[in-house]
Amino acid sequence: MVAVLLAVVSGCTTTGGGAPDTGKDGRATLRGITLPSWYRTDYDSPAADRYLRGIRATGARWITLTPTWYQNRVTDSGMHTTEETASDASVRRIARRAHALGLKVMIKPHVDLPGDQDRAGIAPRDRHAWFAAYRRFLTHYADLAADTGTEQLAVGTELAGVSGDTAAWKQVVAEVREHYDGPLTYAANYDEYRRVRFWKDLDVIGIDAYWPLSGTPTTDPARLRRAWRPIRAELAAFAREQGRRVLFTEAGYVSQRGATTAPYSWTVSDRAAPGEQAAAYRALLDSFTGRDWWAGVCWWMWDDWPDSGETPARLAYTPHGKPAEAVLREKWGPAQGTR
Prior knowledge:
Largest sheet: 8 strands, parallel, barrel
Protein name: Glycosyl hydrolase
CATH topology: TIM Barrel
Helix content: 25-40%
Number of domains: 1
Strand order of the largest sheet: 1-2-4-6-7-8-9-10
Oligomer: single chain
Distance between the termini: 23 Å
InterPro entries: GH (IPR017853), GH113 (IPR055151)
Order of helices and strands: HEHEEHEEHEHEEHEHEH
CATH superfamily: Glycosidases
CATH architecture: Alpha-Beta Barrel
Shape: globular
Strand content: 15-25%
Pfam family, one: GH113
CATH class: Alpha Beta
Structural class: alpha/beta
């Protein structure tokens, strides 16, 4: 198991001028940024190569890809592709491009609902049928991950309405392992991870780390670091209890006033606050880098695709061209080589 856990974060040890990215035992941490897709051909966009180069220039060593299937109602018994689902061919091509640039890849398939409905509310009327459909969905991406040499796969994302069905998830994980030999995680929401009971079937604990850190807007990293302390202690204890490292499968902040009060929200404010976003990036990396039990972070997210963003870039989650990107470059160091 130690070898597997090392494989999860191998190749991410390059350091720049900032803090080291390894724990005291020498295990590396994952330095990643998510490149989501919102449409069938997003990953084939002419912007793709520019985005990948921009991600690598931050010092990132991983990208996360998020092909998404949909179900119409929370009670549906299955999920399906739509025009908003990244095509398999486009996922293959962008994985190949990422590898050519020396980036490692995590595929993190999502199941979503129409509009602004939260996937955590999915509660199928026929759970047996839903899990049968979900296993087909996941093994499809397990095959794609194996074929593309993808270095890590997530078996689910923020499915709190069904993540308590432990036996069903154990079956999901077992079937995925028949198709894919790499490390597996599950991306639990920050208020969900303690209710997940199948962590020991996986290789690393995944948490989407959207904890509110302040009651009022702040650009003070020290204040945010203090807010992280009890959370960090809780996560360290949980990692020891489970015998697994903790990966922040997502973490991010909009560049809006009040972003740290509700990191999970795209619409905290209509006032740009890039300094608050940067302070939040700095506080998270200061708080967790070098902890032996911490496996790293995949930031949400890089740029929206041209003409697809619903949130203006100056207010969005992207750190690109903002002080938060400078924090990444400082903490992670510039791209050096391919590993």
